Amino acid sequence: MDRVGARLSELTIPDMQDLTDIPAALTLYMDGLRSHDIEKIGASFADEIHFITPARTMARGEILAFLGALYRGFPNWSYDHDHPVRNEDGTIGVKWRQGGTHTGTLAFPGFEPYPPTGREVVIPEHYFFYKVAEGGLLQIRPDPVPGGAPRGIFEQIGVALPPL
């Protein structure tokens, strides 16, 4: 929710403006996601990066472990996105579309592994919001839409109590 109670995905065009100069760290991050390049993704992060969901907040190592596990469990995971926009609060919003087929074991440190189901996962398009500093990405926060990432990934493969 934003400062007036609207879900961030419901903000209107006047609330968001096309970003003409995309920060290098965000470009590196988006390229790393599309190529499944964990090193490139890690290089886009500031030391104090946090990925914030309603269920859990992850730091650098946990984020990279999550993405590595995602790409092993879904080797064909793909991303598409709209042009980034700047929000009134200074964060950058990117509307992502993503999905893949669960053909490998989804195994995160500290959680029971989930064997391949063969299920196709399609995450509803939604915004992820980024805080960026000189040192890289400081914060990643997905808009908490029903079925959205990362929780929706687990829900669509039948995990009763998703860890995220």
Helical residues, percent = 10-25%
Q: What's the N-to-C terminus distance?
A: 19 Å
Mean pLDDT metric = 89
- Classify the secondary structure makeup into a structural class: alpha+beta
Q: Indicate the radius of gyration in whole angstroms.
A: 15 Å
Explain this structure:
With 164 residues, the protein is α+β, with helices and mostly antiparallel strands. The chain has one domain (9-156): Nuclear Transport Factor 2, Chain: A, CATH 3.10.450. The protein has helices at 24-35, 38-43, 60-73, 151-156; strands at 16-18, 45-52, 57-59, 78-81, 85-87, 92-101, 120-133, 136-142. Strands 1, 2, 3, 4, 5, 6, 7 and 8 form an 8-stranded mixed β-sheet that branches. The two termini are 19 Å apart. Mean pLDDT is 89; it is low at 1-9.
